[in-house]
Design brief:
Length: about 110
């Protein structure tokens, strides 16, 4: 890395540099607990509704996402649609294709 310093600076003077990152706005931010990874890359499980004669069934469906940025608790991703219900936690292991129940008010 090469820095160009302008002003009254002499050899032997200590300088402190701070390098920041520009802030950015992201359309979709999810909890990192929803983010999964396998050999094909990052993905999340979303709820897909399938109608049946008796009622609606809720199925976990894999959606591949691209991680744009992340911190300790959240990840900004692309690849999700507005209104997708992302599975963040579950009481039992959930895989793509499993039927699930949604909790109204946990």
């Amino acid at each position: 890395i090469i820095f160009r310093v302008n002003g009254d600076v002499e050899a032997g003077v200590n300088l402190t540099l701070s390098i920041g990152q520009r802030s950015a706005n992201y359309d979709t931010i999810i909890p990192k607990s929803a983010l999964r990874e396998d050999t094909n890359g990052y993905f999340v499980l979303v709820i897909t509704v399938k109608s049946s004669p008796l009622s609606n069934r809720y199925i976990a469906t894999r959606v591949d996402v691209e991680v744009l940025a992340e911190d300790d608790t959240s990840a900004a991703v692309s690849g999700l649609s507005a209104g997708d219900f992302v599975i963040t936690t579950s009481s039992k292991p959930v895989e793509a294709g499993h039927q699930v129940r949604m909790v109204e008010n946990p």
